[in-house]
Amino acid sequence: MTDNDNPRFKGGIPDYLIRHTTFRQMQIFEAIVRLGSFTRAAEELFLTQPTVSSQIKKLTNVMGLPLLDQSGRSIKPTDAGNDLYQAIRKIFDCLSDLDTRLAGLKGLQRGRLRLAVVTTAKYFTPEILGDFCREHPAVDVTLKVTNRDEMIDRIQNNEDDLYILGQLPSKLRHLEAHRFAPNPLIVMAPKGHPLCKEANISIERLAKELFVFRELGSGIRDAAMKAFSEHGIVPNVRMELGSNEAIKHAVVGGLGLTISSLHTLTLEGASGPIAMLDVQGFPIQRKWYIVHPKGKELSLIAKRFLEFAMASEPVISARMQSLLKDLSACKKPAPAKRTMQIL
Ligand code: PGA
């Protein structure tokens, strides 16, 4: 029997699904699987819990198989639920593309931009977004800030339009990457630390200090560990913290030194409580990348944002250069005062 002879199908389309399910039910199901919780899905969609539960019950009846597996507090999709989730994501991606195409036909006036950036890119992305939104006030923007490991999952699941990260993931082959602004990594110490007076510090000397590093999965942490491992050294990590700002406070509090992105000092500049140490091989010169899966048709808004961000590159580069100059100048001992001899 072909789909056309099957009474459950009309014109090759599963009629029973069209008649008995709704986009709203699919949206609720998608949110529950993505967030792993009925409560959070209800909050995100501004619905009550009983509404969420009853819609899922109806959806389950139509599908004819259990969709969610609830053991204790964790909710996971069953095999059938997982298949449904993948299908819903495709349907919603199509609708989203349709929405952006329509927005394009209306002249980029409306539409959605979904951006995901690694934790440290939050020091410059909001500024670019601010300028972009001033030019396109009706564009609806979502910005997800996450660490590198989670970002790789998001790229694999095609969750966003564009991604900004500090290193191209070797396990993802099919990416189109646009090299963007510099992302120098420097060694930071509290001002007044004895090493601030020293020049050309060796990695071996640096390794005698205690360090505060980012969590596993962070791109900066990977790069910092690599800088030590290239010299066969394992640094002494006193503490791991998931936030660049918390790390800066820990450094100022004397808990250890850190290796971090120069971008994290953008607001306070060289006048803050953190100094840059003069260590061999530093700054580590890295770049940011704006990426998307190869072959993915970018929405007009995403294309516009990409051009817009690339055009802001010279401003960010110049800012990094002048910050490096200011921090290096802070380290140099003040020129000795000349004493005038009166004869
Ligand atoms: P992170 O990544 O914020 O996850 O450390 C930044 C980077 O790779 O430079």
Q: Can you tell me about this structure?
A:
By secondary structure, the chain is of the alpha/beta class. It folds into three domains: 86 residues, Winged helix-like DNA-binding domain superfamily/Winged helix DNA-binding domain (Arc Repressor Mutant, subunit A, Orthogonal Bundle); 107 residues, 3-Layer(aba) Sandwich (D-Maltodextrin-Binding Protein, domain 2); 101 residues, D-Maltodextrin-Binding Protein, domain 2, CATH 3.40.190. It is 42% helix and 21% strand. Strands 6-5-7-14-8 form a five-stranded mixed beta sheet. The protein has a three-stranded antiparallel beta sheet with strand order 12-9-13. It has a two-stranded antiparallel sheet with strand order 1-2. The N and C termini lie far apart (115 Å). The C terminus is likely disordered. It binds 2-phosphoglycolic acid. The site of 2-phosphoglycolic acid has 14 residues, from helix 9.
